[in-house]
Amino acid sequence: MTDHPSPLAPDLIRMRAIVKVYPPNVLALDDVTVSFDDGEIHALVGENGAGKSTLMKVLYGLIHQDGGEILYQDRSVRFRTPGEAIAAGIGMVHQEIVLVNEYTVWENIVLGAEPVDWLGRIDETRSRQQVQAIIDQFHFDLDPDAQVDDISVAARQKVEILKLLYRKVSVLILDEPTAVLTPQEIPQLFAELRELRDEGHTIIFISHRLEEVLALSDRVTVLRKGRLVATVPAAGTTRAELAELMVGREVLFTSRRTPQEPGEVVFAVAGLRYEDGRGRVRLKDVTLQVRAGELVGVAGVEGNGQFELVNAITGLLKPTAGTIEVAGEDVTAAPVLERRRHIAYVPQDRGRMGGSLPASVVENAIMTHHRLNAELVRWRGLLLDNGAARRFTDRLAEAFAVSMPSRSSPLRSLSGGNQQKVILGRELLLDSPFILLDQPTRGLDVGSIEYVHDQMLAMRGAGRALLMISANLEEIFMLADRIVVLHRGEIVADVPVEQASIEQIGRYMLEGNDATL
């Protein structure tokens, strides 16, 4: 790390004229200049591919800029690794939590920086005392002796933050800190982040949830297509104004779902039960129906059976009991390909489950279609018709507004929003009466979310039956006709959206049958 004084940096951090190019010619950051003040909460927002994460990775030493300078505490710095950044007082908590589930809270926090006794052994008493002291100092609601495997996602996120505070980090970079939290957990996290700010810490966070950005931050920086658009005070700025800065046009935040009478039952599960290899019940007698022209939203704290429900429907796990029917056909024991004739599926992880990032856009666009669509093959299905595959991809790209360098480009070269459009378009172009969507807008920007919502509502209007699993209650209330709540693998509520509120559904998510509407 180079380190020399500079008289030009009155801010705690000033990133000046930062340029980052990904070969061969992708300009990820284009002359970005932004400053972060000591003791502020500063949000970074922008569409997918706008450069937010790239900018923070440059600051954190994960990647290196091709031009520009970083000034930190009046000195020019260039961190070669995240370890150097942490040593200097800058830490980053990624959206994917990485903890050792079998360890306790205190063991995870001190891991790699444990106090030792005179024999070089870990001093467990001193380690636990130091962790308890830092929990008390910042008023985090955590039990240092709890095993990480037994605590909530929100608590695990706090452990990640405390790992950095234990290492004397004064600048915290948080990537989508509320993405997996329930509405009840978010205010407590925000209160703790404000307390950190008041203690003198600087917090920079990336988020797509604009209402939370405005509620928490002091200032907001907007990036668009790798360039700085504006830095504005959160006070006095509206969500609509931020969204327009992000996408360059007006974005609507009101529900566009129109009333319609649902048709016949298209999808039904009855008495669905699943026990894992340890005999633990993950799904408990789940019974659920979705009708034609109906969109049903499944809410629940992550880890309460959503994963098992999705995998049972798609055929990736075999239920212990119960039945699954689509369009009157029992598919409980059907192989995956046979189910795909009836079920379109948009998975939550587009990179691992939805497609192949190294493969071309064409290859990702025709997945499943090449087995079900006779127009894409020749010689009795033995050979792929490359021309037909290209034409199909062009039709998908036009219909779903996919922006891409070329159809032969790898999927990973597209922004997250455009990757999702490829997968969404591929699935919606299947002639399937039932559509299963698992976190369809997770990690997307407001413009892409609006587009995905419009496509889902169009499918509902066309008489398709849709089941959407989402951790975003606002999204469920905007789109769903009915809301189903999963708690510990059991359906504890099934209510029309007009008869529920976000707060009431949140209570069901946390309390199960003990909650009341």
Structural topology:
Elements: E1 3-5, E2 13-22, E3 26-36, E4 41-46, H1 52-60, E5 67-72, E6 75-77, H2 82-88, E7 90-93, H3 105-110, H4 124-137, H5 153-166, E8 171-175, H6 186-198, E9 202-206, H7 210-216, E10 219-224, E11 227-233, H8 239-247, E12 265-275, E13 281-291, E14 295-299, H9 306-314, E15 321-326, E16 329-330, H10 336-340, E17 343-346, H11 350-354, H12 361-365, H13 369-372, E18 377-378, E19 383-384, H14 386-399, H15 416-428, E20 434-438, H16 446-461, E21 465-469, H17 473-479, E22 482-487, E23 490-496, H18 502-511
Parallel strand pairs: 4-9, 4-10, 7-8, 8-9, 14-21, 14-22, 17-20, 20-21
Antiparallel strand pairs: 1-6, 2-3, 2-5, 5-6, 10-11, 12-13, 12-15, 15-16, 18-19, 22-23
Helix pairs in contact: 15-16
Write structural notes for this entry:
With 517 residues, this protein is of the alpha/beta class. The chain has four domains: 1-89 and 171-251, Rossmann fold; 94-169, no CATH class; 254-342 and 432-517, 3-Layer(aba) Sandwich (Rossmann fold), CATH 3.40.50; 354-429, no CATH class. 32% of the residues lie in helices and 26% in strands. It has 18 helices and 23 strands. It has a six-stranded mixed β-sheet with strand order 7-8-9-4-10-11, with helices on both faces. Strands 17-20-21-14-22-23 form a six-stranded mixed β-sheet, with helices on both faces.
The strand order across the widest sheet is 7-8-9-4-10-11
* CATH architecture designation of the largest domain: 3-Layer(aba) Sandwich
Question: Helix share of residues?
Answer: 25-40%
CATH class placement of the largest domain: Alpha Beta
Counted by DSSP, the helix tally is: 18
CATH topology of the largest domain: Rossmann fold
Could you give the count of β-strands? 23
Low-confidence parts lasting 5 or more residues at pLDDT below 50? 1-9
Oligomer: single chain
What kind of sheet is the major sheet? 6 strands, mixed
Structural class: alpha/beta
The shape, in one word, is globular
Radius of gyration: 24 Å
Strand content: 25-35%
CATH homologous superfamily of the largest domain, by name?
A: P-loop containing nucleotide triphosphate hydrolases
